[in-house]
Amino acid sequence: MLDVLDKSKKILEEYALCDRCLGRQFSNLATGTTNKERGASIKLVLAMNSTLEKEQINIELLQNLSKTGAIFAKKTLKKIGCIPKETQKCYLCEGKLDELEDLVQKIVKAINEYEFESFLIGNVLDNSLYIKENKIKDKFGLHGTEYLKQEFNREIGKKINEITKKKTDFNTPEIIIECNPFSSKILEIKIRSVYIYGRYNKYVRTIPQTHWDCRNCKGKGCEKCNFTGKNYAESVEELMAKPVLELTKGEKAVLHGSGREDIDVRMLGSGRPFVLEVKKPKIRNIDLKKLEEQINKEANNKIKVNNLRISSKKEVIKLKTKSQQSTKIYKAIVEFENLVSDETIKKIEENLKDKTLNQKTPTRVKHRRADIIRKKRVYEVRCKRIDEKHVEAIITCEGGTYVKELISGDEGRTEPSFTEIAENKAECVELDVLEIKEQ
Ligand SMILES: [Zn+2]
Ligand SMILES: [Zn+2]
Question: Per its UniProt record, what Pfam families does this chain match (predicted)?
Answer without folding.
Answer: Pus10_C (PF21238), Pus10_THUMP_arc (PF22023)
